[in-house]
Amino acid sequence: MNSWKITLQLLALLLLGVVLLAVVQLASPLRGAAPPPPPPRLEDAASALDLTPDQREKVNAAIEDLQQKQKRAHDDFMHQLEGILTAEQLQKLQSADQRPPRPRQNNGTGNADPAKPVVATKDLPKGTVVFTGGYETDPRDHGRPVVLIAAALSVPADVFRTAFSGVTPASGGEEPKPDQVTRNKQALLKVLEPHGVTNDRLNEVSNYYRYNKGKGEMWANTPATATALITDGKVTGIKLISGGSGYSSPPTVSVAGYGDVHATVKLHFGTDFKTNGSIESITLDSPKAN
Q1: How many whole angstroms separate alpha carbon 145 and alpha carbon 151?
Q2: DSSP bridge partners of 90
Q3: Phi first, then psi: what are they for 52, rounded to 5°?
Q4: CA-CA distance, 207 to 272, in Å (whole number)?
Q5: Residue 99: burial class (beta carbons within 10 Å; 0-12, 13-18, 19+)
Q6: Most buried residue, 14, 30, 78, 246, by CB count within 10 Å?
Q7: Would you give per-residue pLDDT tens digits along the chain (290 residues)?
Q8: Which residues sit opposite 242 in a β-bridge?
Q9: Cα of 194 vs its chain's centroid, Å
Q10: What is the DSSP letter of 206?
Q11: What is the 8-class DSSP label of residue 99?
C-alpha cells in the first residue's frame, strides 16, 4: 500500500472523528451537559503528516473543497429547520451552534474571523443587517484569492492560474528560499508581462493579498455595512452603506429578527485595493417577515 493511500485513510479516520465530535458538541448544550473540547482542524492534522509537496497540494485542495461543502450543507440544514422548528427551538439550536472561533488575523482590517458574524444575530437589534462568509475560493486555487489577485493585476483569473502553475510553493507554509523566489517570479512574469503586468505591480499585489492560512491568517479585507428597509413589519429592501473589500465570493445576507430574508449580492472587482472584491449591489429576492 503506497503512502498516498495511507494518507487518504488517515484523513478519512480523522474526518470521521471530527464529524462525531461535532455532533456531540452540538447536542451537549441542548441536554445541559458540558460540551467537549473542539475537534482538531483537518489542516492542522494534515500538516503533521509526512507528505510530499505534490501530496500536500492535493490534500490542501481536498480540505478546502470539503470545508466549502460543509458550510453549504450547514446553511441548507439551518434553512430547512426554519420551517420545522418553532422560533424558540431554532434560537436554542443556533445558540448551541455558536462555537468560539479560532483567532484569526487579517492584516489589520475587517473581522477577526470574516467567515462568521462578529456576534450572533440573535444578540443584535432587530433589523440589523449581517454579512456572513464571502471568502470562499475556487478549489483549484488551494485557498489563494485568485479572483482578487487577478482583478488587481487586471488579467483574467485563468491567466493568473496559468502563470501560477509554473510556481513551486514552499512546503509546510515555510518561507521560500531566495533562489526559489527568483524562479517563481520569473515563471509568473513570463505569462503576466505580455498582459502588461510589471514586476513592481506584481510585488505590490502579492504583498497585499499575502497571508498564511496555516497560521489562521486572512487576506486583507474590510466588511461591508448596510441597513434594512422595513415597512409594515416586512423587509422591503437592503440599503448598502459601504461595499467593503476583499470578498472573493458573494456573502450571505441576513437581517436580525427576519429569518427568511433572501438576497442576491453582486460583487465588483478591479485594480483599486479599496474597492476590489466590494459589494456592488444587494437585490432582495423574497422579502418576508417572521
Answers
A1: 10
A2: none
A3: -75, 160
A4: 14
A5: middle
A6: 246
A7: 455 555 556 566 566 555 555 554 544 444 444 445 555 555 555 555 666 766 766 776 777 677 667 766 766 676 666 667 666 666 666 655 544 333 333 433 334 444 444 445 566 788 899 999 999 999 999 889 999 999 999 999 999 999 999 888 766 556 667 888 888 899 999 999 999 999 999 999 999 999 887 778 899 999 999 999 999 888 999 999 999 999 999 999 999 888 778 899 999 999 999 999 999 999 988 544 44
A8: 225
A9: 32
A10: H
A11: P
The CA–CA distances, whole Å, from 193 to 46, 153, 186, 211 equal 36, 11, 10, 24
Look up residue 59 and give its amino acid. V
Q: Phi first, then psi: what are they for 284, rounded to 5°?
A: -75, 130
d(CA 134, CA 266): 11
Which are the contacts of 116, defined by CB distance < 8 A and separation ≥ 6? Answer: 101, 132
- 39-48 per-residue burial string, b: 16 or more CB within 10 A, e: under 16: beebbebbee
Place of cell 510556481: 167
Distances (CA, A) of 214 to 143, 170, 172, 217, 262: 10, 12, 8, 7, 33
CA distance 110 to 242: 13
Q: Among 31, 26, 20, 33, which Cα is nearest to 96's?
A: 26
